[in-house]
Amino acid sequence: MKLTKGVLSGSVLLAVLLVGATPLQAQGVKPDKEGCRDSPLLSRVSGCYIYDCDRSDWDAVKLPVGAEGTVQTIEGEKVHIYYECVSESYSRLKVVRNAEAALRPAGYTIEFSGTWENDPAITARKGPQWVFVTTGSDRYHVTTVKAEEMVQEMQTTAAVMANDISATGHFAVYGIYFDTDQAEVKPESEPALAEMAKLLKDNPSLNVFIVGHTDSTGTFDHNLKLSLDRATGVVNALVGGHGIAAARLKAVGDGPTAPVASNDTDEGRAKNRRVELVKR
């Protein structure tokens, strides 16, 4: 080996660099972006690295579902992971087939598998958890969404409820929470329930209908039953947790029949999913 003025020759320098590099780095795979890591739901394809990622505690994500890839909006905790691949064996279809082969044995239902925006893609679901994999020429993206209702951080007061009921005969409460497609009132609903109870205790002659409403997603009969079950859950919470006499409350389910906004947008559907107090 001949060294000139302490400088390695080109071939020796390359050999030294490769000895000090990991096998993936030697292939041109860069380190993952700081703060990013694989989803615990799906490992990566060999020869790929994470070049970006983002996370939101609550967001809306549009996913293709069904044979035709009809767009469905899922709201909840969202994580995006963006991979770039340098392996010569990278294949868009292989990514999708690998994802499907990994998710099916884990209990996921494949909601969509086909071409999305001109590239292979797959949507899978297991209960409230969704996984969406999209591909490109040398990269692919993994999106995970855990469906859940948004936590309402702004609450109204019993006084506001009383004023609206006096003026219009009803009041829409948006601080009552349920898991997707479920009727059990979640603990996060307690501030709104407390204000509803205060309203009723401050106005002992006031009797109300507790009316459940849904958006138009799903079948009519299912939504009608779901809205009644949710209204019944609120009645039970007021009676059992706040001492309101059951005779003062009556649960009603209106399903999707009384929207206050368009069901064609995410914002409209969120407004339509509500519980109302209606003066009897």
SSE diagram, text form:
Elements: H1 10-20, H2 23-26, E1 48-65, E2 70-85, H3 92-103, E3 109-116, E4 119-126, E5 129-135, E6 139-147, H4 158-168, E7 170-173, H5 190-202, E8 208-213, H6 220-242, E9 249-255, H7 266-272, E10 274-279
Parallel strand pairs: 8-9
Antiparallel strand pairs: 1-2, 2-6, 3-4, 4-5, 5-6, 7-10, 8-10
Helix pairs in contact: 4-5, 5-6
Could you spell the SSE succession in H and E letters?
Answer: HHEEHEEEEHEHEHEHE
Number of spatially distinct domains: 2
* CATH class division of the largest domain: Alpha Beta
First-to-last CA distance: 97 Å
CATH architecture of the largest domain: 2-Layer Sandwich
The strands making up the biggest β-sheet line up spatially as: 1-2-6-5-4-3
The shape is elongated
Q: What radius of gyration results from the CA coordinates?
A: 27 Å
State mean pLDDT (0 to 100 scale).
Answer: 87
Overall number of strands = 10
